[in-house]
Amino acid sequence: MAYKIIRERFDQYLQQLKKDYRLFAPVVLNGKGTFTDTDSIRYQEINSIGEICFDKKSNFSAKEVLLPITQTLFYFTEDNWSEPKVDDKKLLLFVRSCDIHAIRRLDDIYLRNGFKDPYYKVLREKVRFCLMECEQGFENCFCVSMKTNTVEEYDMLARPQGKFVYVTVKNSELDFFDGKAIEIEPKFPQKNMTEVKLPRRLNQDIAGSPMWQEYSARCIGCGRCNFVCPTCSCFSMQDIFYKDNANAGERRRVWASCMVDGFTDMAGGHQFRKSQGDRMRFRVMHKVYDYKKRFGYHMCVGCGRCDDACPEYISFSNCLDKLGKAEEADQ
Amino acid sequence: MSNIYLPFTSRIIKIIQHTDIDYTFFMEYRGAVKPGQFFEVSIPKYGEAPISVSDIGDNYVGLTIRRVGVVTNTIHEMKVGDSLFLRGPYGNGFDVELYKGKEIVIAAGGTGLAPVKAIIDYFTEHCGEAKSLTVMAGFKSSKDILFRDDFKKWEQACDVTLTIERVDDDGIPCRSGLITRYIPDIPFKNVDEAQVIVVGPPIMIKFTVAEFLKQGVREENLWVSYERKMCCGVGKCGHCKMDDTYICLEGPVFNYTKAKTLID
């Protein structure tokens, strides 16, 4: 059902929802950006629609909610374990089409790649999506090329317009609006400013290309491209103990990055992919080649956050485009 | 739903010291386990480390652990009766059935001998089940030799070539140089059918495999075990991934026809 309601009513609705849901949406954090006087847009808990940033792309994705940067796996005392408690509330995430597609990729790794991850599963089952529309997409977005510009799997849609909010509710569990139903079609971008000629016939032969070593000269291995990516899912495990009681502590997992030193280091000193060029090749091939071999579609969803975040202005979309065009020229 | 990250407690029932830095810990364990599989071994506050199984017995497994980091240093300070924390076994392991009735050659470099030790034990204890068994093990120096007592036992039941890179005389009969030098001497009866297992550091695997191929061993009869960083052991953390393959899930044991396609 779809409705046109005034903003105050929508905020009341959010308050009603908050009894059973935690609401997460992109919010502008004033002055928290990378550079002086810049803002950061990140997922936070919200209370009203006015807090949500609809007109800009978030710097980080909703991945932060399902797969926290640091997540406690269990607490330990001398010979006992205890798992962290999970809040009973469900989660309503305000997300764009590409980010819903990205969570499907996380589902593949955490639920369908061998064993099921219990921490991810328990949060994922509680998630409902509220679609945020993007009419044109933003700078560096290339969702149309990646075919993630449209989506069916959302539970509701919210489109603020002036004093009103247009709402579509597909999941009856979230539908307690009253009033006259109207018709709303979700708006999806049909063209982005950035278009990518995707490589169609990639194979391992490209691993030997000198092109990758260009990145060794530019990439500084900061890993920002991984951390802002809504589909990057790697982590490392850490044990910590409390300063005031060395017999108690916790085992955690924290986000990891294949672009950063130490990712492949083994005990005894062996390491693989030492150059940044090799790491770039590994990341690019994961996003648009080997993931598809395993799961049937590309991992990259074209959100362009890696391009937004790179301090060296390395463009992932440009790299894909270069591979695609080289392939075309070869034909 | 069971939590794959929660370890279980296992008591140390015996410790054997091989070198200054390599010990085997025999741990209580009831359950199925195959040679080449690994456990995530941990001590709270210090962390986890993937360790492959070197011995398999009734109600125990042997884990050969080299002291090379925070976790393993701490394990080395533990005594019989103390407990460690385990998760696993993970990985595919070696399928012993595959090698039955064949000429088998096992070539191991350094600590690479640990993951294949249980296969050597099996075929030396069940002599009739393989046409022949040749064990080649290379170490840097005589100080680094693992499983000295087992070598004496194996020599009774199969052909053993023990090599050390740097010749020093401490009374152990072994040859000098790398094991690749002695591969041409293997008296294969039917090289087309011979099954060869190669485990060791990446550079050793590369040259050893090349030498076996030169001798006419077929790619599909070559088996390697890859060691990679594995934090979770269950296909989530991504550290061990090569191409679309998760070493912890689909490996660490690979047929060479697959292994040769995996680029780091």
UniProtKB/TrEMBL annotation, chain A:
Residues 208-240, 291-319 form the 4Fe-4S ferredoxin-type domain. Keywords: Iron, Iron-sulfur, Metal-binding. One of its GO terms (molecular function) is metal ion binding. Pfam families: Fer4_22. NCBIfam families: sulfite_red_A. This is Sulfite reductase subunit A. The lineage of its organism: Bacteria, Bacillati, Bacillota, Negativicutes, Acetonemataceae.
From TrEMBL, chain B:
The keyword Secreted does not apply. It comes from the Bacteria. [2Fe-2S] cluster binds at C232, C237, C240, C248. This is Sulfite reductase subunit B. One of its GO terms (biological process) is pyrimidine nucleotide biosynthetic process. Keywords: 2Fe-2S, Iron, Iron-sulfur, Metal-binding. It comes from Anaerosporomusa subterranea. Residues 5-96 form the FAD-binding FR-type domain. Binds 1 [2Fe-2S] cluster per subunit. PROSITE patterns: FAD_FR. GO terms for molecular function: 2 iron, 2 sulfur cluster binding; flavin adenine dinucleotide binding; metal ion binding; oxidoreductase activity. Gene3D superfamilies: Nucleotide-binding domain of ferredoxin-NADP reductase (FNR) module (3.40.50.80), Translation factors (2.40.30.10). Its cofactor is [2Fe-2S] cluster.
